[in-house]
Amino acid sequence: MRLPASLKAMVIAAVLLALAGCGEDKKAEAPAPLTLRDLGAEVVARECSLCHRAAADGSLSRLSGIRKTPEGWEMTLARMESTRGVKLSPQDRRAAVKFLADTQGLTPPETAPYRYELERRPHVVESGHNADVMSMCARCHAFARVALQRRDAEEWRLLFHTHLGLWPTLEYQALARDRDWWEEAQGWVATALGKYFPYDTPAWREWAAAPAVDLQGRWRFVGYMPGEGFADGIMTVTRNAIDEYGVAAEEQTTGGAAINVNYAAIVYSKYEWRGRGKLDNREFYEVAALNADGVTMTGRTYWIDAPEVGSNFVAVRADRGLQRPLAVTNEGLKRGASTEITILGVGMKGEVSLGDGVAVRVTSRSEDKIIVMAEVATDATLGRRDVRVGDAVMAQAVAVYDKIDRIEVAPGQATARLGSDKIAPVSAQFEAVAYASGDDGIAGTDDDFRIGVVAAAWDIAPYDAEAARMKDHLYAGKITPRGRFLPSEAGRNPERLYGASNAGDLNVIATVTDGERTLSGKARLTVTKPLPPMQRGGA
I need a surface site. Which of 56, 75, 193, 232 has the fewest CB within 10 A? Predict the structure, then answer.
């Protein structure tokens, strides 16, 4: 795809305006204000064409053969500034990202498998990709960074030239020096990437031609922060300009705290929602994806200075007559017991049902929130089941169980980073998730079913004999009653053996009480060196 016609149109429009101004005694109407995307087209034409050659069709060398996410284009511009001396004001950079992401972005299905990278989700272990390609392309950064770009095979080859020019020692690093890295990169790897992540596709052309959706109005949202619980509320979205919005959110946490916040948001590529604002003088960033018709968005909000701390959320239009349950608190329903649960949703009308064997008594309700007491029969069928409110269904939203058979600590493997007064530490949040054995009665097999997150007592211990010898559990940090590990300070510790740093290899242990029984689970936590400053903060 060549650089879109809108770039050439901007140049033509500028010429016409100049000619119109040459006439005498003509009172031309004031031109319509330029949108952020229009300004971005001007920036690209003015700044990028200085080095990227323009072709007769208006395309620019290299630049016009790539599609990326907003974050991908942001990184490209940052590299042009740091390595090529390009000078962009914050507004110019913001506008250029908008233009490039809109005209050379990705479709929703293209980003869907890799949104963990865009949303800065911590502790993701990548898998399911071609192992040989991953060994070539995911040694230094996440494979998602590759998968969130689109190029043809020749453009992928040119990217390898760029890599080797910027980082000439990469051929001698681990997983590169054991092979003819350059020949493989220029050969089968570039061909494979052109096949897996091609530039020009019918789906992209169809998405590029589709109309944008106006998002202003009232939205009902439900968020969940690991270790803290649910929050829900209403956000009112007001359009300030094309694809630029102001947001006023009224939120209530599970504990009853009320939070009101105002912030700004931009939509890229017709579905990539990015919000930014402040809460209690602390900046947050919001990354979400809209569905095709613009009535639902899902994503994550996180602190810019601590992206590992965030809330997953779903938002649905509250002004379209939709009826939908969105979340259920206390998803585990024990046989022979009564459990209070809260159903959070939008437009919820009609009878509440949790299936056969569960009697429901509504104690409080509105269209957005229903509190019920669920009384489970002693012979109710075990397993996951749907929640129904009228005709609306939330599939497999609760579980009926008789006892907890195992505890899984999530995530099963995590990393925390030491910090200092200049570089903030990186914490790690854990949750205890209860499971019941399925029909085979054996814990840890494929037919086990999830009961849900349960309260736990938290502790840390050495991961292995070497960690015990080094007493890692005494120096690496501490874990809070809510399961958040807080790492110690960086630097040498004179109290440790060999004057080592506070790095460590730990087991995080959750202990859960179920009646008279006690169960436990564990996860591995690596506490390591601080992040370089450039890797902190929002996109």
Answer: 56
